[in-house]
Amino acid sequence: MKKKLDYHLEDPTWCNGCGIYAIFDALKSTAVSLKIEPEQLVIVTGIGCHGRLNNYFKAYGFHSLHGRVLPVATGIKLSNPELHVVAVSGDGDAYSIGMGHFIHSLRRNISITYLVVDNRIFALTQGQTSPTSRLGFVSNSSPYGSREYPLDGPQLALAAGGTYIARGYSGEPSRLAALIKGGMSHKGFALIDVLSPCVTQNKVNTYTWFKKNIYYLEEDSSFNPRDKRKAWERTSANGKIPVGLIYQEEKPSFEELVLPDREKPLVFNDLKISIKKFNRILEKFK
Q1: Which of 53, 93, 182, 197 is most buried per CB count within 10 Å?
Q2: CATH T-level assignment (fold) for domain 20-283
Q3: Residue 244's Cα: distance from chain center in Å?
Q4: Residue 62 in 3-state DSSP?
Q5: 3-state class of 4 per DSSP?
Q6: Are 85 and 111 in contact (CB under 8 A)?
Q7: Nearest-CA neighbor of 201 among 91, 46, 57?
Q8: For the chain, what are the domain ranges?
Q9: How far apart are CA 119 and CA 103, in angstroms?
């Protein structure tokens, strides 16, 4: 009899009602659905409330520096492409200090699933304005209202050549799990931007607000996620926020293009060098 897959390490301690609970559960159910053994999964987190996720998840975990989730996840994936690598950031972690890494990960198309917990504020540090906060948003860092226009992660990913772009909502964990499963099954970089209410710091973008201001692309019979023009139209429109699979295409992944032998991961290579070669290297520094 096969053992039952279990990824629950311990009970999380986020604020009651936090959207990250749904993301935690959706990721667990996805791993079970794909029959991924815990030792074959690596979760890399950044700085923010989401950063505690790998403390509760029974898999390999790496808590990285602020904005540096994707370089760490890239190194892990290139070292052993057989691993399933999931990177998790907040909207500030991903779209502010981590923006440069985000763009380059998209263009490289490395097979990482990137979950962005988008609560439209810097939640952990008491609710300052983030890159996804709306114009005029009042916060600790913008008491007279934000004077910056917000950016849209999926729209940016589409412009940068992303091959799997989706937006989820933590109020619908089953639909979110389906998007994560699609991203983890995709060959290439997968972005799932997750609208996730912060019940403590953000009193504007609440579950009630999101329920009134989102719509599901799967319910739009005229929409095709393989049509880039339509995807751009949906992410560019001023109005309700599209949720679901926004765009998907197939093209070679970064690890396919750069690794000489995917059957022999770099992590298993013998890195020892002979004394003779080592001495030749030392000669250059004399």
Answers
A1: 93
A2: Rossmann fold (3.40.50)
A3: 15
A4: strand
A5: coil
A6: yes
A7: 91
A8: 20-283
A9: 21
